Amino acid sequence: MKSAVETLSPTRAKLTVEVPFEELKPSLDAAYKKIAQQINVPGFRRGKVPPMVIDRQVGRGAVLDEAINEALPKLYVEALQANELQPLAQPEIDITKLADNDALEFTAEVDVRPEITLPDYDGIEVTVDDLAVTDEDVEEQVQNLRERFATLNEVDRAAAEGDFVVMDLKASKDGEVVEGAEVSGMSYQVGKGGMLEGLDEALTGMKAGEETTFASQLVGGDVLGEDVDVEVKVTAVKEQELPELDDDFAQTASEFDTVAELTADVRTRLERGKRLEQAAAARDAVLEKLLDMVEVPLPDSVVAEELTARRENVQQQLAYAGMTLEQYLDSEEQTADEFEADLEKRVRDAVAAQFILDEVAKKAELGVDQQELSEHVFQRAQQSGQNPDEFARHMVEHNHIPEMVSEVVRGKALASIVETAKVTDESGNHVELQNLRPDGSIGEPEDEAAEAAEDATDESTEQA
């Protein structure tokens, strides 16, 4: 078999393949055998019909069609490998010559992975926000903890901001109760917001046994964004009593003996969370800088397929929320053209990033071991709220494991670039990323070296 490749564009190639007829013999034999099992010819047992009889009965052309259909996928893959092409979509194949007992020629046009020249990405410089934990941040977290241990005492007075009320609520439109918009015995904190516009104002000043009606708009369902009449009745008003912020509370609510220790731990946890946010921002900034440094040709078919998938995902999420795309765009104050432009940019950046990181991984010869893959699958299952075992089984059954492997490899490639980057905050301080632990704490390099040496010692001991 001979093959030649013609570059139609940086992301599309045309293969021309010439196959001597003798190389089709295994496929022809298989075709005769298959057809022999499918036809009945008097005087011959099923499956034992000779080729010359098959030629007379069904025609040589039918045999050739069957043989070529069976041979083409393998011949196409061999041509790809011979020319070191990496396809990104299904090919468009045309048979340009078929001479019985002579030769087969065909062409295959296909989108291929573009060739990328990587820049020198060591020491990329990026800036992220300062790591700032204020006293107000700490006080808010401590206050939330106190509220978790608060008691609710029923009071005989009008509801005020911060009180909890037990209420019955129903929304009507044109005198008809809206389906799914009626609840009873619901507990709600006045002033919390996020439920119905006008609800807090209506509840403020109401006593148990009182009811009122106000106009609002529902945030989901079939009448999303439409005016409705909301009838609310308060059945109880409860005052929140917070525990004293003292050492007794610290011992009740945590493993610490004093409020000072509890507060210090809250601050440390907030700092670690902010540090992880800094790390995520650094990864995004490094990737964005890398995208600016490399010109990546993008196959139209790949971009179009990803755009379709993203649109379907958005529509699915909006359906779960009971919103239409038009309603979502109104809430975001965005036009359809702006939405499409933003979506396409994000898709193009994502596809380009995949190509670049794949090239980085190839250059660094990065791989994935079973533990890394298992941890990634477990993390993806948690993010989607699924059972890890069921998620993993679904990935295997639908052949998504290669995608999982690619995600891990790309993550490792990006991490290797970030480790060499020069990351500073807005104040000019160095942001430590190399020794950042998953919990947001900073490890000591010598500690990691000592752990590695200890592991090596343990391994040597086991071998001995």
Provide a descriptive summary of the structure in words.
With 464 residues, the protein is of the alpha+beta class. The chain contains 14 helices and 11 strands. It has helices at 25-38, 51-58, 60-82, 135-148, 199-203, 247-253, 259-293, 300-320, 325-332, 336-364, 370-384, 388-397, 401-420, 445-463; strands at residues 2-9, 12-20, 92-99, 103-111, 125-128, 151-154, 164-173, 176-189, 211-217, 227-241, 422-425. It is elongated. The relative contact order is 0.10.
Characterize this entry briefly.
Helix content is 49%, strand content 20%.
Write the layout of secondary structure elements.
Layout lengths: L1 E8 L2 E9 L4 H14 L12 H8 L1 H23 L9 E8 L3 E9 L13 E4 L6 H14 L2 E4 L9 E10 L2 E14 L9 H5 L7 E7 L9 E15 L5 H7 L5 H35 L6 H21 L4 H8 L3 H29 L5 H15 L3 H10 L3 H20 L1 E4 L19 H19 L1
Parallel strand pairs: 5-11
Antiparallel strand pairs: 1-2, 2-4, 3-4, 6-10, 7-8, 7-10, 9-10
Largest sheet, in brief, is: 5 strands, antiparallel
Determine the strand fraction and express it as a percent band: 15-25%
Shape: elongated
Helix content: 40-55%
Query: Any low-confidence stretches, pLDDT <50, length ≥5?
Result: 459-464
How do the helices and strands follow one another from N- to C-terminus? EEHHHEEEHEEEHEEHHHHHHHHEH
| Cα separation of the termini | 54 Å
Quantity of strands, as a count: 11
